[in-house]
Each structure stands twice: as structure tokens, then as C-alpha cells.
Design goal:
Elements: H1 2-24, E1 57-60, E2 63-67, E3 72-75, E4 80-83, H2 155-158, H3 176-184, E5 193-198, E6 201-206, H4 224-227, E7 233-234, H5 236-243, E8 248-251, E9 255-257, E10 260-262, E11 268-276, E12 280-286, E13 292-297, E14 307-308
Parallel strand pairs: 5-7
Antiparallel strand pairs: 1-2, 2-14, 3-4, 5-6, 6-8, 9-10, 11-12, 12-13
Length: about 300
């Protein structure tokens, strides 16, 4: 009887051990520990979900704006507007493919060519390439700016930008006076911009009114006119760190005349919404000299860098 009980106990023990052995050979996926909830890292891109900078910039004594994540771009074949993926991106020579059926992207636009047919202009489409200034006259005899009743002539204001909130009337383009205030009249203005090279691309860096972060890379603003493109040099990876401060970069994307692209990498040319006389319009130009509001023929294709609000 004792032997029988011992045998039974031994048998059950072996079965139990075998069962344990079989179970222990099954591979279990390790469980990931719960991740703590974190605040958004401003150093990743420096822009919110609409593509607006977290940092702000004064453009008048009582007005601040937030810059878009990149220059405005357009694809005619799909009638799509978007912001460049990176601040240092620009289209360059491919703007010469400008046409109503172009499957590529362009980023140099004639003045008032937002696609709004109500502007009164002959050339109101973003793919317009006429070199006749009279084709770009907005309003009665061209005597209207791209704001107020003619605000839809503004490329950024009229259109839903696919990666910029995808809603019309959300963004806008700066005025001539706002460009000037940004560079020369806001507090400590002259210390907040300088020429730079980002990932091999020439352009201008603009610092916000208040830095979001002060632990990033050095920025040299002294004696701007003597610095050249090599005054501030950043790799693309380093520029992502600079964005953590709230810094904005305007690439020197050149200009287009008809279907010819000029001055890429040497001149930055950014439209304002203001006309100048009958055939000209105001824009911001920079090289390695001080940036300055200037005027040019409306038929030229220039860059557009939207802001909100």
C-alpha cells in the first residue's frame, strides 16, 4: 500500500515537472514598461501641427506673427499647395517647368498669382509665366494691394495649404512695412538676423523676439554686411537644434523671369502684399548685404513665406 502510494506520488511529480518544463519552453514576448507622458519636444521641428513656429516675431509695435515651417510650394497637376518640408528647401531650376499640367512643384510666383479669378488680373494662376507686367494688375488699374477686399490675391491667404491646417484664410503674406519692422525696428533688431549656410544652402537666419531655448549652437550677428554666407554655418542636423531656439531660415531661392530661373543661392527674394505704382510691387531682397524692402516688376516669380495670424 505504501509502495503504491509512493509510486502514485512519484508519477504525479514527474507529470507536474514535465508540465512545468513544457510551459517554460514557450517564449514570451517581453512586456514594454509603461512610457511616461512627455511634453512635445520643441527641438524636433520647432513647429506645431499646422506648421506654425512656436516662437513669435514682432512685425509692428502691437503685432506679432508666427512663421510657417517653409516656403510656399504649388503643384499644378493636382492644384495642391504645401509648405516645404524643411526651412532650407527650395525648388530651384525645376521652376522652369512651370505650366498648367506640371506634375512637379514650383515655389517662385508672379505677384498676386494666388489662383483667385476675382482679382481682375489676366495672370492670376500660380503657374502664370507671362513677362508682361500688365497681366498682373490687381483691382482697378492695378491700384490695389493684396489685402482688404483683394486679400484673396495673397497666395497664402486664398488657399488651403495641405500641410498647413488645410484651410483657406488661415495664413497670409507680410506687408512691406512689416518686413522692414522685423529687420530694423523691433527691439534689438540688428542682433536678430545674419547670413548663414544651412546644409550647403545659403540664406538668412532670423531669431525670434524671445528665444525658446538658449543652449543651441552659436549665432553670429555682428557686422552683418561683412560676414558673408560663412558667418554662420550649420549642418542639417545642427539646424534642427537651431530650430529649438525658434530660429527661422529664409533660403536664397533666386527668382524666375518667364521660364528662366536666376540667382539661386545668391539672392533671396520674398514678396510682400504691397504694390508700388502701376507696374511694380514691393518685396524683400537679401544677399550678404543688409536685407531691404525693394520694388520689382510684378511679372517676376519670387518666393512666398507665409505667417500666421
Amino acid at each position: 500500500m505504501v509502495k503504491s502510494n509512493l509510486k502514485t506520488i512519484f508519477t504525479l511529480a514527474v507529470i507536474a515537472l514535465l508540465g512545468i518544463g513544457t510551459f517554460s519552453c514557450q517564449k514570451e514576448e517581453p512586456k514594454e514598461p509603461d512610457k511616461p507622458v512627455q511634453e512635445p519636444d520643441l527641438g524636433i521641428k520647432g513647429f506645431d501641427e499646422k506648421g506654425a513656429s512656436y516662437a513669435y516675431f514682432s512685425v509692428a509695435p502691437d503685432k506679432i506673427v508666427f512663421f510657417s515651417r517653409g516656403n510656399l510650394q504649388y503643384q499644378a497637376s493636382t492644384n495642391t499647395w504645401r509648405f516645404a518640408e524643411h526651412q532650407f528647401d527650395f525648388i530651384g531650376a525645376d521652376n522652369e517647368n512651370i505650366s498648367s499640367g506640371n506634375k512637379g512643384w514650383i515655389d517662385l510666383f508672379g505677384w498676386g498669382s494666388s489662383g483667385w479669378s476675382g482679382s481682375g488680373a489676366v495672370c492670376y494662376q500660380p503657374y502664370s509665366s507671362s513677362t508682361d507686367n500688365e497681366d498682373y494688375l490687381v483691382g482697378y488699374k492695378g491700384q490695389n494691394d493684396l489685402n482688404g477686399s483683394f486679400g484673396d490675391g495673397d497666395w497664402a491667404y486664398h488657399n488651403a495649404i495641405s500641410n498647413g491646417g488645410n484651410k483657406a484664410h488661415l495664413w497670409r503674406t507680410l506687408t512691406r512695412d512689416e518686413w522692414n519692422y522685423l529687420f530694423y525696428q523691433r527691439k534689438e533688431a540688428l542682433s536678430k538676423f545674419a547670413p548663414a549656410t544651412v546644409g550647403g544652402v545659403h540664406g538668412i537666419v532670423i531669431l525670434p523676439d524671445v528665444l525658446l531655448d538658449t543652449t543651441s549652437l552659436p549665432f553670429n550677428s555682428d557686422e552683418y554686411e561683412k560676414g558673408g554666407w560663412e558667418k554662420n554655418v550649420y549642418t542639417k542636423a545642427q539646424w534642427l537644434r537651431m530650430e529649438k531656439t525658434g530660429a527661422i531660415f529664409l533660403p536664397a531661392a533666386g527668382k524666375r523671369y518667364g521660364k528662366t530661373v536666376l540667382d539661386c543661392g545668391t539672392h533671396g527674394n520674398y514678396w510682400s502684399v504691397n504694390r508700388n505704382g502701376y507696374l511694380a510691387a514691393r518685396y524683400l531682397q537679401f544677399t550678404t548685404n543688409y536685407p531691404a524692402p525693394r520694388e520689382t516688376d510684378r511679372c517676376f516669380g519670387l518666393s512666398v513665406r507665409p505667417v500666421i495670424p
